[in-house]
Recover the amino acids of this structure.
């Protein structure tokens, strides 16, 4: 089987889909090659991510990855969201096919972009190195 049970579950039944109107941070990233777009909204209270929602025009793996990523950062300190790696998301999903790994990168980048937006809006100092532009993930799948 190409996809794990968990991937299929999160794909068929994604958690935290939607939009937060009064979000404290919004992150949008896109993949130029396949045109997939991912948008993540976060609500922050006392440094904790109290709510998170996502929207994606992406493939099934992008949906499953962002669903899992939102579950992993909800209720957690904002620093934890920043530390979330696509590798951790893939592990939590019990793996993704190699050609689909880049889809999970989209989720990681959208989370990071939302945190950066939150920092910027609130004038919170941060290490710019943390948000260096990485390689744009490729879409072969
Ligand atoms: Fe482009 Fe999955 S995000 S194919």
């Amino acid at each position: 089987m190409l996809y794990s049970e968990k991937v299929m579950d999160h794909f068929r039944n994604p958690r935290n889909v939607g939009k937060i109107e009064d979000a404290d941070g919004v992150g949008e990233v896109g993949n130029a090659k396949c045109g997939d777009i991912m948008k993540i909204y976060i609500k922050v209270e006392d440094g904790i991510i109290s709510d998170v929602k996502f929207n994606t025009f992406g493939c099934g793996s992008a949906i499953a990855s962002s669903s899992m990523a939102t579950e992993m950062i909800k209720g957690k300190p904002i620093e934890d969201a920043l530390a979330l790696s696509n590798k951790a998301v893939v592990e939590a999903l019990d793996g993704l096919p190699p050609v689909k790994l880049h889809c999970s990168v989209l989720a990681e980048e959208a989370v990071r972009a939302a945190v950066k937006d939150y920092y910027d809006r609130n004038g919170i100092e941060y290490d710019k190195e943390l948000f260096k532009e990485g390689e744009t993930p490729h879409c072969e799948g």
